[in-house]
Amino acid sequence: MAAEVMAQLEADPLMKRNHLALYLCCKQSLRTHKATAARNRRIGQFVRWLFHGVFVAPALALRHMLRQGGDIAVECLPPTANEPAATQVKRLKKAPEFAQAQSSFEAQAPVPKDAPSATSGEPSKPNAVSQTA
To answer: Is the pTM of this model over 0.90?
Structure first.
């Protein structure tokens, strides 16, 4: 309302001169309102900062720690037990009938032509590196 009264008084210089006290009261009221609004903004910023520091930041830190803590906890777990079938396979490989079946199966498997010989431990002649002293 003070802004409207000031606008009316500024529009007519004669009225402004006749009602100078009213004009100054309106100016003072607007300054006070502006200062109060600035103070309220500062208080609001402080309350938001305090709320963030007391409630939000610890919650975010806790969430971050739990996320990393879960990864750390998983890494700290002991390794899983061996596959139960692995001991059974080792035991069966030692049995004579299964060893014989394994060797006959390997004998029947075709050898790929492009693959190097698995039985030869030495490199072939074209790939051999000559060692001259």
So the answer is: no
Between the CA of residue 69 and those of 59, 73, 77, 132, what are the distances in Å?
15, 6, 12, 61
CA gap 121, 133 in Å, rounded: 24
**Per-residue tens of pLDDT for the chain, all 133 residues:** 889 998 988 888 898 888 899 999 999 999 999 999 999 999 999 999 999 999 999 999 999 888 888 888 878 888 777 777 878 888 887 888 887 887 888 888 776 676 555 555 445 544 445 445 4
Please choose, from the candidates 9, 28, 36, the residue with its C-alpha nearest in 3D space to the C-alpha of residue 20: 9
